């Protein structure tokens, strides 16, 4: 977060790529709470998150055992105009499997193939 403040102080404008890089770095460092704060700041600053942003957060949530929260985000994305991609679904299916929800992962996979989504 300090880096964002320094960048703003220098008059630099952050774009989605900048925020995605920071969010990814915090996720890799195991700092999910800070990554979520950066995401919130991104939205507050009027920078629209893209599917890459969401995929980074979803992967981090799944890696931290927060599959239910990840599923809520996916459901919200499906209702929005955001194009959920095969990477998003792969992250969720892998996260479900990692968190012992193999049957749910299989059901999601089957429903996607019925909708014509190719793995």
From TrEMBL:
Q: What protein am I looking at?
A: Pentatricopeptide repeat-containing protein
Q: Which organism is it from?
A: Noccaea caerulescens (Alpine penny-cress)
Domain of life of the source: Eukaryota
Query: Which InterPro entries does this entry report, sorted A to Z?
Result: PPR_P_subfamily, PPR_rpt, TPR-like_helical_dom_sf
* Sequence ranges of the PPR repeats: 15-49, 50-84, 85-119
Q: Which PROSITE patterns match?
A: PPR (PS51375)
NCBIfam families xref list = PPR
PANTHER family reported in the protein's UniProt record: MITOCHONDRIAL GROUP I INTRON SPLICING FACTOR CCM1 (PTHR46128), PENTACOTRIPEPTIDE-REPEAT REGION OF PRORP DOMAIN-CONTAINING PROTEIN (PTHR46128:SF211)
Write the record's keywords in alphabetical order, separated by commas: Repeat
């Amino acid at each position: 977060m300090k880096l964002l403040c320094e960048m703003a102080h220098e008059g630099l404008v952050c774009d989605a790529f900048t925020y995605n890089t920071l969010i990814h770095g915090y996720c890799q460092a195991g700092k999910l709470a800070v990554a979520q704060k950066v995401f919130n700041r991104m939205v507050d600053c009027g920078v629209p998150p893209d599917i890459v942003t969401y995929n980074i957060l979803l992967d981090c949530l799944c890696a931290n055992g927060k599959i239910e929260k990840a599923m809520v985000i996916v459901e919200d994305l499906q209702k929005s105009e955001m194009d959920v991609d095969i990477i998003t679904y792969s992250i969720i299916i892998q996260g479900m499997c990692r968190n012992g929800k193999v049957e749910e992962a299989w059901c999601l996979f089957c429903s996607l193939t019925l909708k014509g989504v190719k793995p």
